[in-house]
Design brief:
This protein has 378 residues and is mostly helical. It has 16 helices and two strands. It is a multi-pass membrane protein.
């Protein structure tokens, strides 16, 4: 049986909140498009089969990687030596908080939202806070690398000042992300679709689609466009600078940059393109065919999952590629193995070799803010 929510889905697709099964609810849509009936039960069925296993995989894999980053910073390093160290720790925390929301959305995809309106608001806001904060922190990392690689002398002369500044920048990032998540705290609530409750954004009738377009525009501009423009500029200048150097590791550094940019574009651009199309649909109703609407929604579900995989990849792109971090990971693994009563000989040998070379360890620490390839791979 087709519900009134399904009728609305002709005119306004799922909200920018990625887990809605129907869009912002406004009474004006009922009057204007009452004759357009579209049963989207197949979309919900597809979501119920597709999202839960994938979201659990993303949550588990991303959780393990990001928890390793946090554990290493808090237990092995004990001190944040560079601006990028501060940004990486905050990025790992942001990704972890984002990944915590995925099991609840997976449960909603299978059985509807059973956790109440308050947790709906909290989970929606938590998702949006960490979406914005992680994108802004990735931007901060690119700016820091630009300063260290392109303006080397300035970076070396202001290490302490930059490290203090990084804490203030992170505070501003989190506050701005909280501000941008305000719509979720205000408008996210539970709504019934085909006798099941779902968590979604519901706007009062007098606000209409204009508020939906505004929220979608904020997500696309602050969550993708602005970070991408800044990252593209910073990494382009860095590559030009590296091409002029004679550092034998510059090719490895440029490969790291290329992978970072390509992964960001491939994972984020398609889904943000979907959000732009949703805004266009809310503005002038670009699609009216029911089958086309349902295909669009299914493609959106797949591209959304692709975007979320970035939370799994961040530890590998920004932390584990570095020599220092790989050594810390080996030390973490040794601790885990020793707790299980087994200590691999190779790990022990590598760590003992590292401990016998305090000079090289000190050199790596000192160079972390000045050496091009070290800083690019941290």
């Amino acid at each position: 049986m087709t519900s009134m929510d399904d009728i609305m889905n002709i005119t306004a697709f799922t909200t920018e909140d990625p887990f809605s099964v129907s869009p912002f609810s406004t009474t004006e849509d009922y009057e204007d498009y009452d004759s357009l009936m579209c049963d989207r039960a197949s979309v919900r069925e597809f979501r119920g089969r597709y999202e839960p296993p994938l979201f659990w995989i993303i949550a588990l894999v991303g959780g393990a990687g990001n928890m390793a980053v946090v554990w290493i910073y808090l237990n092995f390093r004990r001190r944040l030596k560079t601006m990028s160290d501060v940004y990486l720790l905050n990025l790992a925390v942001a990704d972890l908080l984002f990944l915590v929301t995925l099991p609840l959305w997976a449960a909603e995809a299978s059985h509807g939202w059973r956790f109440g309106s308050a947790l709906c608001k909290l989970n929606s806001a938590l998702y949006k806070v960490n979406l914005f904060s992680s994108m802004m922190l990735l931007t901060c990392i690119s700016v820091d690398r630009y300063v260290v690689i392109v303006q080397t002398t300035k970076a070396q002369n202001s290490q302490m000042e930059r490290r203090r500044c990084s804490r203030l920048v992170c505070l501003v990032v989190w506050l701005l992300a909280l501000l941008l998540a305000t719509p979720e705290l205000v408008f996210a609530t539970t709504a019934e679709v085909d006798s099941q409750q779902y968590c979604r954004m519901v706007f009062p009738a007098h606000m209409g689609n204009r508020t939906k377009i505004l929220v979608l525009s904020l997500q696309v501009s602050m969550g993708f466009c602005l970070p991408f423009i800044i990252m593209a500029f910073c990494y382009s200048v860095i590559i030009v600078t590296l091409l002029k150097t004679r550092n034998f590791q510059k090719h490895k550094a440029m490969r790291v940059i290329l992978v970072v940019v390509v992964v960001f574009i491939v994972s984020q651009l398609p889904y943000n393109g979907v959000l732009v199309m949703e805004a266009a649909q809310a503005s002038n109703m670009t699609m009216t065919d029911c089958d086309e609407v349902k295909r669009f929604d299914m493609v959106g579900q797949v591209l959304k999952s692709l975007a979320y995989m970035h939370a799994c990849l961040n530890p590998f792109l920004y932390a584990f590629v570095g020599v220092r971090f790989r050594k810390d990971v080996l030390q973490l693994l040794q601790c885990c193995f020793s707790c299980c009563g087994w200590q691999p000989a190779t790990t022990k040998g590598q760590l003992s070799k590292s401990s016998r070379s305090p000079l090289s360890s000190t050199r790596a620490s000192v160079m972390s803010d000045s050496d091009t390839s070290q800083h690019l791979s941290l």
